[in-house]
TrEMBL record:
The lineage of its organism: Eukaryota, Viridiplantae, Streptophyta, Embryophyta, Tracheophyta. Belongs to the major facilitator superfamily. Sugar transporter (TC 2.A.1.1) family. Belongs to the major facilitator superfamily. Phosphate:H(+) symporter (TC 2.A.1.9) family. Residues 55-474 form the Major facilitator superfamily (MFS) profile domain. It is found in: Membrane. Keywords: Membrane, Sugar transport, Transmembrane, Transmembrane helix, Transport. This is Sugar/inositol transporter. NCBIfam families: SP. It is a multi-pass membrane protein. GO terms for molecular function: sugar transmembrane transporter activity. The chain crosses the membrane at residues 50-73, 93-113, 120-139, 151-170, 182-201, 207-224, 284-306, 326-343, 350-372, 384-409, 421-440, 452-470. InterPro entries: MFS_dom, MFS_ERD6/Tret1-like, MFS_sugar_transport-like, MFS_trans_sf, MFS_Trehalose_Transporter, Sugar/inositol_transpt, Sugar_transporter_CS. Its main location: membrane. One of its GO terms (cellular component) is membrane. It comes from Heracleum sosnowskyi.
Length: 487
């Protein structure tokens, strides 16, 4: 009896040895966060690390759905315009309303993820995307088409925050960068899928394909664990330990990691409950500047202008647009995959610096090609310069600036402000994304080569920002990162 009482006291003090049930060979049964029974037995099924990879795979199905939403409008423009008799203004609204939906999703994403959990937020996003795709599929006019596009945009806005945050919270420190970067890789795969498949199937059928990754995600969420850090923050000690043990493997010793997480959360609980305006308090200001600053750097360097109008850029430079677009898509996938492989070895900061430097080179080459075209100098060299510039640009973006800001955003915000701060950073990303895509044509009509001079200058400023403000987070736990930044 005394021994049992001592065990209870130790558990309340978070000092219980977590592996005790495994070592003793006892069979313990708990209800997990979805009320499914999870059994733990000693000596059997050693190493359950595959749960971590399964959970990541299920999660990045949302990233693939995200990419499908972005890529949908490009290959079907002529078909959907002709089929529904849309004017240019109506189709332009259909294309751009996605960004407004994403902004709304970004604003609400943090609150939803904090209130319903990371899995709950992904369910909300998947539901909106599914409803949006169905509205697009059945649309017979611009109104349901725009409602569907707005709904898929909302889902994208939620996905863009919760997916990198969830993956970062479930990953061990030595895998966190690579696993979080797979989100960006799957976004690009989703875009490429829409680009390629959209050329051989109808636009309504393409809309239905967007439901597939949403369905896989919704089904997969039934079997994967919730974020242990979110569970711990919400005071669910038992489910926190179960989720962490499942993610690390049955035979893994999670006592040190569990203690570190709980100690960090106890320290957070001693602070006053955070409000929206608390984001701008001195102790959080550095993490806000880093998160929002990286989102500005990512978008203001011109990526959406180049991405959305890459076919026009190739055509205006005299290079076959179909060939250029295929090369562009393949390079983007390959280099993003490479970035995922090296991020935990090379580090976040070096990849950002290499990426921003390459973006400057890409802007110089592309700008030079348009300068030569404007003044009719060395006309034979223009296509090669333009293609080289665009490929250097997209390759450089994919290796670092595409994924790493999202990785760092998922690492730097403390749990007590993560929802609000993450929403702010995501909103900054989507609003600047819209601004760049909206102004690109105006800038090009003003000065084609001048546009790339502006983008190159912004990327140079980004290098200074990265050198002076952004910390290296490789090889450190989330708690160590957040304590160092917000000390």
């Amino acid at each position: 009896m005394a021994n049992k009482q001592n065990m209870k006291v130790a558990e309340r003090n978070d000092q219980v040895e977590i592996r005790v049930p495994l070592i003793l060979g006892q069979k313990a049964k708990f209800a997990d966060e979805d009320d499914y029974a999870v059994e733990y037995q000693t000596g059997k099924d050693k190493g359950r690390e595959w749960i971590l990879y399964l959970t990541t795979f299920v999660t990045v199905c949302g990233s693939f759905a995200f990419g499908s939403c972005i890529g949908f409008s490009s290959p079907i423009q002529s078909a959907i315009t002709e089929d529904l008799n849309l004017t240019l203004a109506e189709y332009s609204l259909f294309g751009s309303i996605l960004n407004f939906g994403a902004m709304i999703g970004a604003i609400t994403s943090g609150r939803i993820a904090d209130f319903t959990g990371r899995k709950g937020a992904m369910r909300v996003a998947s539901s909106f995307c599914t409803a949006g795709w169905l509205a697009i599929y059945f649309a017979e006019g611009p109104l349901p088409l725009n409602i569907g596009r707005l709904a898929t945009g909302y889902g994208m806005g939620v996905y863009s925050y919760v997916i990198p945050v969830f993956i970062a919270e479930i990953s061990p420190k030595h895998l966190r960068g690579a696993l979080t970067t797979t989100s960006q890789l799957m976004i690009i795969c989703g875009i490429s899928f829409a680009f390629i498949v959209g050329t051989v199937i109808t636009w309504r059928t393409l809309a239905l394909t967007g439901i597939i990754p949403c369905a896989v995600l919704l089904l997969g969420l039934l079997i994967v664990p919730e974020s242990p850090r979110w569970l711990a923050k919400n005071g669910d000690h038992e489910k926190f330990l179960i989720a962490l043990q499942r993610l690390r493997g049955k035979e893994a010793d999670i006592s040190e990691e569990a203690t570190e997480i709980q100690d960090y959360i106890r320290n957070l609980e001693k602070l006053p409950k955070s409000k929206l305006m608390d984001l701008f308090q001195r102790r959080y200001l550095r993490s806000i500047i880093i998160g929002v600053g990286l989102m500005f750097a990512q978008q203001l360097g011109g990526i959406n202008g180049v991405c959305f109008y890459v076919r026009d850029i190739f055509e205006s430079a005299g290079f076959p647009s179909d060939t250029g677009t295929i090369i562009y898509a393949c390079l983007q996938v390959a280099v993003t995959a490479l970035g995922a492989l090296v991020i935990d070895r090379a580090g976040r900061k070096p990849l950002l610096l290499v990426s921003a430097s390459g973006l400057i080179v890409g802007c110089i080459l592309t700008g030079l090609s348009f300068y030569l075209k404007t003044y009719e100098i060395a006309l034979n060299a223009i296509p090669a310069l333009a293609v080289s510039g665009i490929l250097v640009y997209i390759g450089s973006f994919s290796i670092g600036m595409g994924a790493v800001p999202w990785v760092i955003m998922s690492e730097i915000f403390p749990l007590d402000i993560k929802g609000s701060a993450g929403s702010l950073a995501t909103l900054a990303n989507w609003s600047t994304s819209w601004a760049v895509s909206y102004t690109f044509n105006f800038l090009i009509s003003w000065s084609s080569y001048g546009t790339y001079i502006i983008y190159g200058t912004i990327n140079a400023i980004s290098i200074l920002f990265i050198l002076m403000v952004v910390p290296e987070t490789k090889g450190r736990t989330l708690e160590e990162i957040q304590a160092a930044i917000n000390a």
